[in-house]
Protein 1
Amino acid sequence: MNGVNQSVATLVPDPIGDIKLLQITDTHLFANREKGLLGIKTVESYDAVIKHANKYAGTCSAVLCTGDLSQDHSAQSYVDFSDRIKTLKMPCYWLPGNHDMQEVMLPSLLSEGLAQAKQLVSEYWQIILLDSQVSGVPYGHLSESQLTFLEEKLQQYPNKHTLIAVHHHVLPVGSAWLDQHILKNNEQFIALISQFDNVNAVLSGHVHQEFDVEKEGVRYLTSPSTCVQFKPQNNEFAVDDKAPGYRYLVLTKSGKITTQVERIDIGEFKTDVNATGY
């Protein structure tokens, strides 16, 4: 779609003004709950991640879901996503990934009561959620309307610290097979945000692995999937033996970000490279 939804949501900070967040990404759910990717039933690994993340319930301002929520584009997969994310009992804000079908995603999530807001604001911070989907292809691109939306929101609150969320990774992660599916106009994006001194970090999914690099004062973060993990620094497709996970972030009122990746016990969620899927 790559259109812009103008709705704004308010983030409620903790008593000292910090914003605490969870990032859940790349759930890749199917309508058939018995289906999976590389031997992992994605609804079961997602359920295990949500149960683990429940230790943060009541302490976080929101959960950010950064795309590829569905693998098969089905309405049922988005209902299953919603049913579980709502058990965290905090607002959920989301954006599309390359595997999502927005014509199904949007009405399904809205019918389940998940907010459509793409700008989240608190006293000290704003979070901007962008749509980098290009229909039918795995790589990302930010349309002119998305770039204009981003620029307008950065101009609107020049004194607020800013976190930008987008599905596709902006900086190469060092794996050729993944980096060919990067945000293709990343240089244009970086040039835009470099005009503002209030952009603190960019948060992405897509690469199914942890990544944390600072460039020109901006921190670029990616996070594990709730299902299959991709092995870092491999030029050919390779899966990692790490467990599914998610990210916890604290955005302090001073602009500092503290963050950690959390993983479930790997248990039954080991990938099988001989299995079907992906």
Protein 2
Amino acid sequence: MTLSPRRPRRRRPAPLIGSLALATGVGLVAAPAAGWFGDGARAHAATPRAAAAIIVVAKDGSGNYSTVQAAVDAVPANNPSAVTISVKPGTYRETVKVPANKPHIRLVGTTSGKNDVTIVHNNASGTPKPGGGTYGTSGSATVAVEADDFQARNLQFVNDFNEANSAITDKQAVALRTAGDRIVLDNIGAVGDQDTLLLDSASKSTVGRVYIRNAWIQGNVDFVFGRASAVIDKSAIRLVKRYDGSSGGYVAAPSTAAGKKGFLFINSNITGDVSSRSFYLGRPWHAGGDASLDPQAIVRDTDLSAAIKTTPWTDMSGFSWKDDRFGEYKNTGTGSGAASTDRPQLTDAQAADYEIADWLGGWQPPA
């Protein structure tokens, strides 16, 4: 495996400055649920219409809507400007889809605690659909975001499918799926077991950049997976046991396209109440057996607990991790280890090209 950059050296963009402060529309007045557009509604149909600046969701009926999906549905197609869906504390048992034609949505809990707003459902890959068939892995997502320029803050996405359900054999159950570009997830939770967080792109040929900060991400098997170019920064990665009480699993399963960035875990910690040396950091997912993929995962400047195996990468479905792009840099903790053929480490020179700004490719998340 070669960890050296696959492109010429270039001047890196300026580093991210300051903390993320996602727009919440403070100081704007929430519009009523009906009649938002006034005279503007009579504009030519080809002109994208702007939604209300803030849409309030509250289970007790004190907002514009009582479900998150209803608020998303209220955003006009091809909305040209930011709209905040402000969600009051509560548990919202529903599935939510943000379609590709509804960009610029900010989904924000009204408190600073990520546990105060929970969006939860329990579909699994093998769960029967009302119209026949099953949901499949991507279709199992509690929340699916297909639009660009989406932001979420101060809430958690949960899939509480019970893996002990013997009637369903395909137990992959996604809490959050993203497939857009320029996605920001700040102070959020993603909680599940197998396949918790699917970070994807619209297609193999397109880029889906995701910046995650201050998150709680929980699972046991391939629970951060997909082909997005994603940074997981200053986050808590929590390992949990399987439904039968056993320990063992994989943090990341990237399916990166050749020539694109995969997953960068940085400034984080990986731990959990599981057995010592029972979890791999990751393995290469060649989705559909696609040999042209070049999965990538880098874990750097991160504290690793004793739960991490001394040989932290492994093969998957006949594809060797050594043929793809996996490595570490300056990790700490009892789960870290010295460089070897089974544990490749970046050099200082290589690490200079494996930073957040490099990963985001000229896009700087809003500060």
